[in-house]
Amino acid sequence: MAHALLFLLSLLPLSIAAQSNGTIDLGKSITANTDAADPWLSPSSNFAFGFRQLEDHNLFLLSIWYDKIPDRTIVWFANDGVPFSSGSKVELTSGKGLVVTDPNGKEVWESVGVSNEVASGFLNDTGNFVLVGSDSLSQWESFTYPTDTLLPTQTMESGLELYSRRSETNFSQGRFQLRFKDGNLLLNTRDMVSNFAYDNYYTSNTSDPTNASNSGQQVIFSDTGYMYILRTNGLRSDLTPRTMNFPASDYYHRATLNFDGVFVQYAYPRSSSTGNTNWSVVRSVPDNICSAIRGGLGSGACGFNNICSLGDDKRPICQCPQGFLLMDPDDKYGSCSPNFTQSCGKADVNSTADAYDFSTLENIDWPLSDYEQLNSSTESQCKNTCLQDCFCAVAILRAGQCWKKKLPLSNGLSNDRLNSKAFLKYRKVDVPPSNPTTGPPTICGNKDRESIIVVESILLGTSFFVNLVFVGAFCLGFSFIYRKKIVKGLPTSETSLRCFTYKELDVATNGFGEELGRGAFGIVYKGVVQMGGSRQVVAVKKLDRVAQQKEKEFKTEVNVIGRTHHKNLVRLLGFCEEGQHRMLVYEFLSNGSLSSFLFGDTKPSWNLRTEIALGIARGLVYLHEECTTQIIHCDIKPQNILLDEYYKARISDFGLAKLLRMNQSKTVPTTIRGTKGYVASEWFNNKPITAKVDVYSYGVLLLEIISCQRSVGDLENGEVEKAILTDWASDCLEEGKLEALVENDREALNDWNKLMRFVMVAIWCIQEDPSSRPSMRKVIQMLEEVIEVNRPPCPATFSSTT
Length: 802
Description:
With about 800 residues, this protein is an alpha+beta fold. About 25% of the residues lie in helices and about 30% in strands. The protein has five domains: about 20-145, Bulb-type lectin domain (Agglutinin, subunit A), CATH 2.90.10.10; about 155-285, Bulb-type lectin domain (Agglutinin, subunit A), CATH 2.90.10.10; about 340-430, Hepatocyte Growth Factor (3-Layer(bba) Sandwich), CATH 3.50.4; about 435-585, Phosphorylase Kinase, domain 1 (2-Layer Sandwich), CATH 3.30.200; about 595-785, Transferase(Phosphotransferase), domain 1. It is globular, with a radius of gyration of 31 Å.
């Protein structure tokens, strides 16, 4: 027995070697279930191939990574960075090579370009995954389909492209591109919809039109860690400095086009004995991306209206200027929206210094956004010429010259060597004047001000010493009382809402003079308030005549929305609760409601409509699943979807929201909520109300977005078949007449698969039985083609127009 045991132990190393020799046999598979799912390893285990779990633990990225590095740096990924859902499986097959199937068994990705039968797969120690045919020749290689990274031994042939990620954690293709074209290695930004390449912001200058033999032929990343361009005549143009001190025998190497557009070669020690546990920069290009991007198209290194400054690591730092806020709070490299209003209406064309003023920013410029230039200009002249021009949003003064610019601003940069001043114009009517009689902004209500008057009277009749003691006691006591009052009115410490006085909002809205819209719970007015040191345009919902029963719903909005933050939700900034005056102060979104956008004279583009639909779905997923306390909106409709300056959808109006605790799953309706045309059957059948009522409303809304038709048509126009959109859309799907639903929208019809998918998802959402409707998370997965969309049954004859 001892000899047998020794014999088995002697075989163990051979078994381990067989498992990690890099070869993958046909039929082998990996299922995406946990981040610990066993990957396929290269012979030395330097690299691994498999599924990597993302921040959303239900999504997985099929990828290759450095397995011995603590953060397991990803160097290649499949499907253009679009993740797969939990339960997906990758399998090595003879006919198609690598094939990924979703949890339902549908093929969703394959290694394209396989022409002959595959005999095996092999992950080698260079990080290249190779599919080998029965003739021992390569049928497919991951090196031939790079993503954002190059590795040693990898080459770039003419026409090959790399794309940056969209962000640090979003692996889908971003707006920066690395290309090898006509002998040059190029970096450029691009339009992400059409893939149109904007002007290059880096070029290797290795193309020679007069002598073809001197032009670049290949970009080579050698196994020694050096990158260079090999010219046709055999000469080299180095990309890696000859003085590099990171030998490949001691360091791993990679070259990555980062999400912020900087192309960087990195090195990482193979041994931890060096004490260094980070990727070191070998070389990065361009040297200064903020100033390198100079083309007239695109936003620059940062988003529109954003300002770029260079960090110590030569990577860009983006920051909105004073008076601007990020369009997407989660994307600091994105575009910024102004908090001030500009237009060229009749009142603005004849504007004077009495109507407008400027805020001044030092050493900031948007050098490519000007449309007029004035020579020999003083600061006063520069401001004045911008005041008299309704198109002028910003004026830049530098070295006695004045440049006028209009929104959106591109290629913004900050540099102390600019020696410039930027004058940002705003309308004075948008800014409430300071009013010393209003008192501190933290004091809400008349009773607080009356208390101050009484205290001041007492102080006048006492000695100085007593006064001093009393002042200290009063300040401490008032602070305690005020904090207690705020806690009582807003019972959570997680909110950062500002408490406004009625007078503040009266001044901010110019006496509630500009009406933005009307809803079931009040009128919305436009105003401008001072917040965080800057002026901000806001929408003030006035609820000063609400019934007693609805005061609880007002409280719900204040308490719940103050803790609710998502890029597809309208942000609540503050509130007023003073006597009978109850108001909510929201961020202002410049492009109004989705209703006006969809049903106007011009049909919006198909791509923009589908992006809006996805944004609304993401907002609802947040409300239903990701809030601390689940929120059911109960009134999803186009009027309650607002659009910001860049037409990103934001869900608004939580006045009808039904609040559920985490340990509750449903509630029973006492009154019907919602709007005709969007209401699920549960409201009428006295069934439990769940988040599926929002799914139904979303389905109706999705059909409106697809067709640009209202959910309830006008019977007077004689088109009876279109009167109920849900019925008509279902008939169009059944009869194969989607061209009628979109009224021959060429853009939509050319995107037939997406059109069919979106319509089927909408029909699934409007099923009468709530259990047949998908969750909003599943809706997103179906819309984004992460999971298969089966053909839905025809909805029951229930109509929410009842």
